[in-house]
Design brief:
alpha+beta; globular
Length: about 210
C-alpha cells in the first residue's frame, strides 16, 4: 500500500506533467499560427528593398574588373515565317573596358554578369555574354586599351513589350577563399554580387532579314 508521501509525490508529478503539456500545446499552436501567417503573406522569402543604385542610361558602372557604359536598348522582333516561329530578343548596347589592375589579363564579359530584371517577382534572365566589335561573342577585352563597343542579348517572350527595361550588373571580387577551411587563400576574381541597375528606354526593331 502506497504511503501518504508517495501519493502526494504522484499528484505533484501529475500536475507538473499536465502543466508542461499545456505549455507545449500552446507553443505548437503559436508555431502553426506563425507558419500560416508567413504563407499568407508571401512565403519564407524575406522582402527587401533594392540596395544598389538605380541609374538611367546613358550610365557608367564600375563593376569588378570591368567598366561599362550603357547607351541604348532594342526590342528586336523576328516575324513568323513558313520555316520559323516569331521571336523577340532584348538587345542592350554598351561599351566595356578592362580595368583589371590586379592580374592585368585579357577577359571577356560572361553572361552571368549582365542580367535582365523583368520585375513582378520573375526570375532574372542571364545574358548571352558580351559581343564586341560586331557580333563577336566572348570577345576578349585587353587590359589598358580604350573601351570597346559591345552588346548583349536576352531571351524574352515573343510578345514582350516594355517602355523601360532594367539591366542588373554584377561585380566580381578579387579575393581568396577561406584558408581556415583548407581552401586556397590566393586571391582571384569570383564571388559575384549586384553592383547597380541601369534603366533604358528600348526602341522596337523589326528584323526581317532584308538588312543582312
Amino acid at each position: 500500500m502506497e504511503s501518504l508521501d508517495e501519493v502526494i509525490d504522484a499528484m505533484i508529478a501529475d500536475r507538473v506533467i499536465h502543466r508542461h503539456r499545456r505549455i507545449w500545446l500552446v507553443v505548437i499552436a503559436l508555431v502553426v499560427a506563425a507558419i500560416l501567417v508567413i504563407l499568407l503573406t508571401g512565403g519564407w522569402k524575406e522582402k527587401k528593398g533594392r540596395t544598389v543604385p538605380t541609374l538611367t542610361a546613358p550610365a557608367t558602372v564600375t563593376a569588378g574588373r570591368f567598366e561599362f557604359t550603357f547607351t541604348k536598348a532594342e526590342i528586336v522582333r523576328k516575324p513568323k515565317t513558313d520555316y520559323s516561329k516569331a521571336e523577340t530578343t532584348l538587345k542592350v548596347y554598351f561599351t566595356a573596358k578592362n580595368i583589371d589592375t590586379e592580374e592585368q589579363t585579357s577577359e571577356s564579359v560572361s553572361g552571368e554578369l549582365l542580367r535582365f530584371v523583368p520585375g513582378g517577382g520573375k526570375d532574372l534572365v542571364e545574358s548571352n555574354g558580351g559581343a564586341c566589335r560586331g557580333d563577336n561573342l566572348n570577345w576578349k577585352l585587353v587590359y589598358g586599351l580604350p573601351p570597346v563597343e559591345c552588346s548583349t542579348k536576352f531571351e524574352v517572350d515573343p510578345d514582350f513589350t516594355a517602355d523601360v527595361v532594367e539591366i542588373g550588373i554584377l561585380q566580381e571580387h578579387y579575393e581568396g577563399d577561406n584558408s581556415a577551411l583548407g581552401a586556397d587563400p590566393k586571391p582571384y576574381w569570383h564571388n559575384e554580387d549586384p553592383a547597380a541597375v541601369v534603366q533604358l528606354k528600348p526602341t522596337v526593331v523589326v528584323d526581317d532579314g532584308k538588312n543582312k
